[in-house]
Amino acid sequence: EAEVAQSPRYKITEKSQAVAFWCDPISGHATLYWYRQILGQGPELLVQFQDESVVDDSQLPKDRFSAERLKGVDSTLKIQPAELGDSAMYLCASSLGLAGSEQYFGPGTRLTVT
Amino acid sequence: EDKVVQSPLSLVVHEGDTVTLNCSYEVTNFRSLLWYKQEKKAPTFLFMLTSSGIEKKSGRLSSILDKKELFSILNITATQTGDSAVYLCAVGTDSWGKLQFGAGTQVVVTP
User: Fold this and answer.
1) Shortest CB distance from B102 goes to which of A42, A97, A100?
2) Residue contact B101–A43, C-beta within 8 A
3) What's the half-sphere exposure (Cβ side, CA atoms, 13 Å) at A104?
4) CA nearest B88: which of A43, A96, A91, A32?
5) What tens digit of pLDDT does each residue of B32-72 get?
6) Are the beta carbons of B42 and A105 separated by less than 8 Å?
7) Rounded to 5 degrees, what are φ and ψ at B83?
8) Does A87 touch chain B (CB under 8 A)?
């Protein structure tokens, strides 16, 4: 069964360092999402791509976060510099992109900033 | 501002009990409502609801949507310890499939 792949699964970094996460969506899924999930809360959308274009990055802290999906397939989310408050689970999801369609989630990257 | 509110925040039940979880929403452009189950990993899809009054069932789980009163319920009957998880409700709000999630309900099923 096709799955969303993410790496790394765990990352520990010191504050002010740069960190990057990678996501490979299910083949054929045009829409890719990056979420941040703080313990005890639901996922919060950071950025949404349709193919290689950003369609929503209204909640992305653009002073330190960046995301790209250059060829419309896999994607990278970067944080520079990392802050203590960035400690969270970073989830990637993909879907066919139709209105209200099901999103399939990857295993996530657990980030700890020390 | 779009809001999705789940209740209760957490509950503990005994195996065999029935559980009812609530999800209410206030969004400007409703497209669908989805339920996910999250154990100590990524959320897994349970149901998607778009029409009022039509119950969706999968084994011991069922869900229904009321678009007039703006809420959905998720029922779990004959609970098992494997049902212990966080149950997330999410509302689809635009044509690109954007989801607004609630905070989740933590369910603990004790033997």
Assistant:
1) A42
2) yes
3) 19
4) A43
5) 999 999 998 889 999 999 988 889 999 999 999 999 999 99
6) yes
7) -80, -10
8) no
What counts of helices (H) and strands (E) characterise chain B? 0, 11
Q: Mean per-residue pLDDT for A29-49?
A: 94
Euclidean distance between CA atoms A25 and A33, whole angstroms: 9
Interface of B with A (CB under 8 A): 4, 31-32, 34, 36, 41-45, 48, 50, 88, 90, 92, 94-104
A23: nearest Cα among A78, A61, A80, A82: A78
Q: What is the DSSP letter of B70?
A: T
Closest Cβ–Cβ partner in B41, B43, B98 for A56: B98
Tokens of B78: 């004959």
Whether chain B has a CB inside 8 Å of the CB on A101: the answer is yes
What is the phi-psi region of residue B98: left when phi exceeds 0, alpha when psi lies from -120 to 50, beta otherwise? beta
